[in-house]
């Protein structure tokens, strides 16, 4: 960060969205001292590899510093409640100044020393993939209610047996063979034991308060133990291909069931599960889906990659709010107009051309159509409630049909043949937008007065190198925008490289009058340029 940039940040109060400030991919950022007096409640710093590990602020309640290469950290934040330090190289945490923290995430800090954590009044601790083996310091943490120690294959579960207050426990992917040492944890309500192949699950019958169980990818052969869990409501048995699932027909209390990747051929047993609200049977070559038609309480259904041809099994599911029928290339979607409560619909790679039926789904907020080559998008103009739209890899040439969708916040047009982006210029609510891999000639036509968090440009597009045009467009960016101008270093693309230089020149001229936001864009462009040079 240059001297000018520091002065600029101190001079201008940045626009804080909902009390939150995000800083990402800034290789020039050295210090977070400018945050000291900001009136913010949440700060996120990610992929900033050169920052000093010191921070003061009396207002911040939630702090996330992820993947910044920190080896230590000093914090003076008396009101901090939630601290996330995932993905660094921290070996020891000083708990002084952190006594009010109740939720701590130190995941992916390999071989971190957790001695001292018992001094904190934590209710939630996440430390997956830390390569720890000694958990004895946790014994005295009597306020701890939720613990995640997944991905620590050397961990000793015996040290947890005294933590009878635990309500939520994640011990997935820990190479565990036996659960008997945890039989004392009778207050457990949520348990994740997934990816512990060949584990003995017979002890699960002692956890009678369990309402949520993830037992995916265990190579299970028998599930009789489930019948002894009367309070179980949510069950994940995905990636278990050797089970006889007929026993599930007796678990009528279930509200959520995940059987994806389970080699299902027959789902008649679902007939009895009339209380299901969420069902995932994706990635199964199911022959008949008619039993689903009886599950009228369903609000979420995922049947992607099930070799579906007809959607008639959906006719009675009028309460569906989220539906994923992606990757069924021969599917007929003509009955979807019945599902008028749908808010989220995913139709990825379904070989669709005609989607006129979708114009009746006026409550849609999220729609995924990626991978449908040459799909005709004209019907989308009627879906004015859309906030998220994915149209990447659809071989689109023009996007005028999207002009009425002014509520869009997320738009992905990656890998199409779009030449003009001007029909999108009134989408003032966009916060994330990608034109990666297109043939756009008016890249900055839609930049005026937009509120992007991320605006992704790329090679294959053809931006104007007119310095005055860049100045006119960039001078009007009033929000905290991340301008990502991606370059493939293995290719020669003079127009994009020239754009880097032009952008920097323009910002140099604007710096006397421009706000914090322009400075942030300059830093990010500089950071990405430096990154590219290193590569």
UniProtKB/TrEMBL annotation:
Pfam families tied to this protein: LRR_4
Entry-linked PROSITE patterns: LRR
InterPro entries hit by this protein: Leu-rich_rpt, Leu-rich_rpt_4, Leu-rich_rpt_typical-subtyp, LRR_dom_sf, SDS22/Internalin_LRR
Alphabetical UniProt keywords: Leucine-rich repeat, Repeat
Coiled-coil intervals: none
Keyword field contains Nucleotide-binding: no
Protein's UniProt name: Leucine-rich repeat domain-containing protein
């Amino acid at each position: 960060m240059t001297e000018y940039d520091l002065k600029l940040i101190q001079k201008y109060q940045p626009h804080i969205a909902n009390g939150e400030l995000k800083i990402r991919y800034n290789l020039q950022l050295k210090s977070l001292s400018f945050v000291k007096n900001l009136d913010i409640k949440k700060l996120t710093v990610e992929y900033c590899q050169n920052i000093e590990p010191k921070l003061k602020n009396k207002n911040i309640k939630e702090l996330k510093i992820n993947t910044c290469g920190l080896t230590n950290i000093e914090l003076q934040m008396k009101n901090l409640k939630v601290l996330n330090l995932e993905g660094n190289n921290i070996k020891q945490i000083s708990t002084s100044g952190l006594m009010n923290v109740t939720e701590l995430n130190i995941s992916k800090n390999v071989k971190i020393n957790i001695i001292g954590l018992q001094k904190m009044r934590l209710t939630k601790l996440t430390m997956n993939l830390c390569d720890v083996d000694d958990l004895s310091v946790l014994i005295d943490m009597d306020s701890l209610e939720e613990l995640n120690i997944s991905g620590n294959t050397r961990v000793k579960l015996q040290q947890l047996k005294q933590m009878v207050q635990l309500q939520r426990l994640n011990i997935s992917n820990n190479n565990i063979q036996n659960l008997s040492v945890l039989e004392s944890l009778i207050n457990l309500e949520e348990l994740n034991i997934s990816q512990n192949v060949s584990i003995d699950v017979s002890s699960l019958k002692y956890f009678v308060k369990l309402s949520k169980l993830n037992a995916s990818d265990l190579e299970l052969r028998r599930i009789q133990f489930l019948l002894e869990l009367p309070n179980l409501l949510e069950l994940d048995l995905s990636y278990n291909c050797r089970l006889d699932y007929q026993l599930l027909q007796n678990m009528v209390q279930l509200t959520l069931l995940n059987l994806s990747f389970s080699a299902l051929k027959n789902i008649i047993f679902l007939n009895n599960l009339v209380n299901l609200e969420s069902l995932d049977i994706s990635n199964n070559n199911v022959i008949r889906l008619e039993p689903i038609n009886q599950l009228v309480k369903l609000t979420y259904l995922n049947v992607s990659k099930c070799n579906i041809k007809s959607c008639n099994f959906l006719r009675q599911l009028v309460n569906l709010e989220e539906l994923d029928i992606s990757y069924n290339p021969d599917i007929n979607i003509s009955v979807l107009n019945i599902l008028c409560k749908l808010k989220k619909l995913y139709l990825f790679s379904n070989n669709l051309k005609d989607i006129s039926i979708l114009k009746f789904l006026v409550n849609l907020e999220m729609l995924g159509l990626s991978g449908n080559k040459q799909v005709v998008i004209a019907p989308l103009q009627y879906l004015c409630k859309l906030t998220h739209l994915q149209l990447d890899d659809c071989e689109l040439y023009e996007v005028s049909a999207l002009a009425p969708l002014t509520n869009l916040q997320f738009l992905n047009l990656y890998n199409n043949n779009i030449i003009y982006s001007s029909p999108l210029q009134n989408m003032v609510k966009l916060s994330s937008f990608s034109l990666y891999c297109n043939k756009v000639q008016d890249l900055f036509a839609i930049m005026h007065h937009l509120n992007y968090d991320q605006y992704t440009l790329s090679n294959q597009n053809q931006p104007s190198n007119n310095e005055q045009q860049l100045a006119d467009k960039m001078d009007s960016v009033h929000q905290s925008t991340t301008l990502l101008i991606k370059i493939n270093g293995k290719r020669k693309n003079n127009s994009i490289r020239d754009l880097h230089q032009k952008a920097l020149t323009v910002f140099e001229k604007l710096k006397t009058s421009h706000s914090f936001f322009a400075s942030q864009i300059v830093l990010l462009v500089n950071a990405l340029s430096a990154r590219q040079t290193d590569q």
